[in-house]
């Protein structure tokens, strides 16, 4: 075979992913501190968010600064479900904050959340549906690139303002704090237990595998093609808007899943989950880790959020300064993120003379990226 | 290729399951969650405030004044001979970080109590973990009430402890017609609900009620409406940066403070300094504490605090003083708990909370004068005061309550019931814990 | 209050002009940078903030009168913009979406840097006494300072238009905007044009910041409130000067009218929705830059 950059070899990639999955699944075997498990599970959620951004931006070329819409709406859905779990239809039918806002009856759109299954389903479907509609509107009109990014940011702000303003129905700025943990099939899921950790871990693995398979499929190929040059893909006969909407909606679904898990772990949601800084943060994680690599994006999230938790208090005054400087350096010198750095290093190693190169093949071919990176 | 991948995944997941299986069915071995104190070792408390970001302006001062209070307590022998050791974190004005840090402080650092938060939203973000771990939160800011938890102690005024005096005072001195302006979130809206009731009792008339988006500094439209309505005074629950913009634009648009002053629950010494005394002078504030209070304890407090390394921001305003008080409420509560059990190692966070009902901070320690903790809802009994901002930015006390006012978190929700030490007791007799 | 009396409504329209001028002056620096250089400058809010702090620092250290602080802020922030462009942005022109990440990093550094130097507490900028009153003309009442902002905005727009449409430099800028390679082949130093326009945009943001520091507040975090609004103006306008003027005018007036009819919060929400709908039907904005394929 030609000189292959190990980075691009599919078996090598799957091996690394497999290793990653095994290591995160094994963590509870070594860690029994509930606080740490909960914290790691939260990192898992951040990883899922970075994954969704990587799918949408890295592979689809759609810079989405408003991923918080899916995350936040799903989080609210889950919080509503969990809140209703603690209410009783006869003795205690209305959440306390609604009583304080002089609501006599449960509003119509809260009613479906009496059912746990229905509530979770709604929490996942409504944001995805919104993404489908919004995506269709935008992509059919060929809004893309920075315009789309700003639009998603504006939409995010609009939702945050709406939720804040609908105080009687959403408790406004104070958010919804379900008093007890999520209960499924009769058992409580303690946010500090290995069970909660494994639910997050399992879903992270499933979504990552799914996303990876997606990018390696024909659908994924078309999406990557339109990232590079949508006009050309359009001329080839593909319905570009359809593909863009699909990848956007899929990334939204993953973010919605993350939102539901979030509330399961933290038992709280507020308009802060729809903060622009948080949504932009997700893009930063994917950018630093390497938006073209799903695993890279996930690890980017771990790195930055872990850094913030553990270094943020060591360097009380200068943490954000260092973070900003770090971003600048990475973007300036490592456009494909840290994963790109790995790619370069592996590429350089593979090109060492006399090792694997076939001397009769032109040098240019040897670095070609394989399909489905 | 496919076979390898599938096989790999299957094998790895089986392996993971095998190793992890015991943990699935073994009872979750949780070590003692509860924080405990050890004889001879420092008492760990957590300071959960924002030192950076949008909320840094009120909250950094809270951390500084807590450090000052802790130094002071330690210099005087600590609590039962044990020094207090603060664990300081930066919540970065980010509610996710508040939640994470609260967990870290309570579960990992095992602090016996937490001092934190300013906005209600951040408090709500950390309450689930405070309640589930049965820990103790000292919340030192004015808020809207409507909560009955068994794990918090609050040293800031509730609505019936500041607007109840302010509204009638303003009606008496300036006139019946008032316009409400607030930031658009829970606390101003709840405060206004309360204020409407006091207004009606005082015989006043509400001309309009407007809410500005949080963080907005555009007051043109609202001031236009105020100009048309021509109230006698304005009742403001605008907070933060918006508050400063509001006062500035008020004067710039030609409104005269003598004929239409702004009465607020938040515009204190820091805000006045930031907007410039010429924009702040003449307006009114209702708070239990002002830097200019003329009692010996306060004078000593202000002098020593500003001289210390923590006093760099140059003023002591009500939120800081309420935080300072919470340190002494903690001291008194812990001392009572140690006396009750006789053994410092048996004291838990919840125990401190339970014995804190009735705990007092006397005149010689409290810069605002005697306060004590209510034995039912664990908020503070205090004396509201009304101050008017002077030309130099300080406040002159124009009115002071003669008696301490009882805190009533459900003052406008009589149907919700009464908050007691063990739960919220509804009119039908049923009691519910942890109502937030 | 939903009465549509003429006098208060007319006042709302006049106020709308003022709000429009605030939107516009916040956005004009960004317009120039985005329109010419194509950079999404997430640090724009921090340039505004730097302008405010420059005025504060000059005033508190040297006692410089406010009106002189304005050009001084322009110069200082333009210099900062220059440094950033040469040190970082220059390398990212072919990666437009990456400039977003990089400038986000810059905004963090600037915000925290200012916080470390000046502290988190709000600062006060003094202005002459005359700016602390208002002007009443029949039904309309506007504060003098708002009129000053309006005047300065008009001046800046006129100056910028003159620069771009009547000077040689402006011609070079427009050439580079349309097609960088072609312009370079005609001997225009595209690099220098980019550098100068970036610095110009930054400087204008600085002036806006000085004004906002008086109108509102001086805090390390003050810039964030203006960024999304500024971006919306640029996007709705399409990236040209005329587009931004039209967009700011429209949104300012609409905000004032909506706020007059309903309330501030709902007005803002409605505005966002309208902008989204508008962009759906006219994604290139009101007056887009006519450019060839890059």
Features of the shown structure:
heterotrimer, A: 373 residues, 66% helix, 1% strand, disordered C terminus, B: 436 residues, Rossmann fold, 2 domains, 7-stranded mixed beta sheet, 5-stranded parallel beta sheet, 13 helices, 18% strand
Explained architecture:
The complex is a heterotrimer of chains A (373), B (436) and C (294). Chain A is mostly helical and 373 residues long. Chain A has a domain at 30-276. Helices cover 66% and strands 1% of the residues of chain A. Chain B is an alpha/beta fold and 436 residues long. Chain B is 40% helix and 18% strand. Chain B contains 13 helices and 18 strands. The termini of chain B are far apart. Chain C contains 11 helices and 2 strands; from the N terminus they run H-H-H-H-E-E-H-H-H-H-H-H-H. Chain C has one domain (6-281): Orthogonal Bundle (ABC transporter involved in vitamin B12 uptake, BtuC), CATH 1.10.3470. The chains are: A mainly alpha (373), B alpha/beta (436), C mainly alpha (294). Chains A and B meet through helix 1, helix 2, helix 4, helix 6 and helix 8 of A and helix 1, strand 2, helix 3, helix 4 and helix 6 of B.
Overall tally of domains of chain C: 1
Low-confidence segments of chain C, given as residue ranges, are none
How many strands of chain B?
18
Strand count, sense and barrel status of the largest sheet of chain B are:
7 strands, mixed
Order of helices and strands of chain C: HHHHEEHHHHHHH
Classify the secondary structure makeup of chain B into a structural class.
alpha/beta
- Poorly predicted regions of chain B are 15-32
**Distance, first to last CA of chain B:** 55 Å
